[in-house]
Design a protein that fits this description.
Blueprint lengths: L1 E8 L9 H12 L4 E6 L14 E8 L6 H4 L11 E6 L5 H9 L2 E8 L9 H12 L7 E8 L9 E2 L15 E8 L2 H7 L3 H10 L8 E5 L2 E2 L1
Antiparallel strand pairs: 1-3, 1-4, 2-3, 2-10, 4-7, 5-8, 5-9, 6-8
Length: about 220
């Protein structure tokens, strides 16, 4: 299963409750989408990554064989033209925890952009990337989630939606790890980020951090 994360801003006279956006989501269902979640990105005490005003985040689960491009052209008619995409691959066994993260009161998209000189083949580095996720189960307020490397971009901003966003980076060159993490509240997440459990792997990975490392937050509605 592919999970596509699209971010955009609607035209000034529209909100996510608009019938135009509902119609597009219905077309996405007809095209084969398994599930959809949508919501505005949230302002936070800190701004780990740039956030646009009234920015919308739209998560779509697609079956492996689905053609996403045709239906996505409909988004151009209701946005300001700034839509970007990140694409991920998850197995069926990962889906239950992933959905817990998306359906939590707060979904954090935590991005680790590994530097160009980070040794991707290093087993210790990859272990720390994975343990950064599994350690969240020890933190108060964590509700579930999962993580993966982005398939189509090494920039946490994503790539412009279109044919280019369907081009996949070779596995050996994927440097953007994105963690889909559900929390009971932003404050509980912020408290968790100040614990020794959080710091254990982050301190190991920090020397490899590059621009684009950070997070954004969404309170999703399920279509």
């Amino acid at each position: 299963m592919f999970s596509q994360i699209i971010r955009f801003t609607l035209r000034p006279y529209l909100t996510i409750s608009a019938s135009e956006f509902l119609t597009l989501r219905q077309k996405v269902v007809a095209a084969g989408a398994v599930a959809q979640y949508y919501g505005y990105t949230l302002p936070t005490r800190k701004s780990p990554l740039p956030k646009k005003k009234h920015e919308v985040c739209w998560a779509i689960h697609w079956p492996d064989s689905c053609d996403r491009r045709t239906v996505m052209t409909g988004l151009r008619g209701i946005t300001t033209g700034d839509e970007t995409s990140l694409l991920f691959k998850f197995t069926d066994t990962q889906l239950p925890e992933l959905e817990k993260g998306l359906e939590a009161p707060i979904c954090e998209f935590a991005c680790i952009r590994l530097a160009d000189d980070a040794p991707l083949s290093n087993a210790a580095l990859q272990k720390s990337m994975d343990k950064t996720y599994t350690d969240t189960y020890k933190m108060l307020g964590f509700a579930g989630g999962n993580w993966a490397y982005a398939l189509n971009a090494n920039d946490s901003a994503g790539v412009t939606l279109g044919d280019a966003s369907e081009h996949l980076i070779s596995e050996q060159e994927r440097r953007l790890g994105v963690y889909f993490l559900g929390w009971e509240s932003i404050e509980l997440h912020q408290d968790a980020s100040e614990t020794s459990v959080f710091a254990e792997e982050i301190d190991k990975l920090m020397p490899y951090f590059a621009n684009g490392t950070g997070a954004w937050y969404v309170s999703f509605r399920k279509h």
